Description:
Blueprint: H1 2-21, E1 38-44, H2 51-59, E2 66-72, H3 79-85, E3 89-92, H4 101-109, E4 116-120, E5 124-126, H5 131-141, E6 147-151, E7 153-154, H6 165-173, E8 194-198, H7 199-205, H8 217-227, E9 232-236, E10 241-243, H9 250-258, H10 261-264, H11 270-296, H12 302-319, H13 333-354, E11 356-359, E12 362-365
Parallel strand pairs: 1-2, 1-4, 2-3, 6-9, 7-10
Antiparallel strand pairs: 4-8, 5-10, 6-8, 11-12
Helix pairs in contact: 1-11, 1-12, 9-13, 11-12, 11-13
Amino acid sequence: MIWHFIWILLLTVCLVSGFLIYRNPRFIGSSQSNEENISIIIPARNEAHNLPALLESLHMQTYKNWEVIIADDGSTDGTRRVGESSGATVIDVPESEWRGKSHACHHAARHARYGILIFIDADTSFTDADSLARIREQYHFQEDRGVLSIQPFHQTVRFYETFSAIFNIVTITGMNIFSAFGERMQTSTVFGPFLMTNRRDYASTGGHMNAKDTLIEGMGIYRGYHDISLPTTLYMGYGVLQFRMYPEGLPSVVKGWQKHIASGAENTTRPVMALIMLWLGGTLVAPSYLATTALWHSGSILLPIMFYILYALQFMWMGRKVICLPWYSYILYPLYSLFFFHVYARSFIQTHITKKVEWKDRKIDLKKGK
């Protein structure tokens, strides 16, 4: 009896932790806006396969007053051809000691004609025809000041892509502000795939210049805006913005997430991180309780089955507006959790011990900060 009580108590604490870290998800509203010119900047390095979906979704928008600038960062595929064929302005990012996405965004911003700027990753696309109008109106609600950042909903096609599930949930919950503590907590970064700001604030904060020596550009950008008391608002992209990450195979999923998941954990406050770790621990405790009971106490198997299903339901509740998963994936949460811990360990070694990261055929030396 005591044996069961200990398992039940531990799992209850883990389930409550999951509820607390995902208590206040925030989404873009449904209002329409007055159209105003926007410069949309897309940093691109060998993104010919991703750009068509984004550009097609942009041309489908009811909001029409925009220009598109593609910052071609040394691509060797058909990035320029795809961009120009859609009517976008394609500029070459000059060679520099400062390399990568933040440099491409900084350079492209100097070519923008309009006062409102959007920085969007090439593997992202708008979900509905009114997505851009809704996002623009949401930015208007914060008086067109500061930065508005969105984490896109993760679309998946092949099964191995669903192994990003835990990473997506941890990315959202690790921002602190989506937890039960709400506005009492403060984030210390912004989402990288989508940023909306205005030219004046971007210039006064330094914009992507603040990300010159950071692995995660959102951390540097946030500091720039926070230091001069400009608002930073974060939203989840369900219903307005989506992306498909790492479709090249399971190795790309590993390489993509291990690049920054350990560094990103540093943005999370200790109370929220403790709750996240408890919830993650529960994803392994629940199947362990089920397995040990099946082996040694099979007569009382119904209770561990119930808790295993409860955890699967909570996983579904947390994941369904973060990532697209087939129904059967929710019962596989222990497998996703083990994969997460494996990649996190690799990321920790790479970030804190070897201090070298490789991404898109470029090696980043974290000891040199570039």
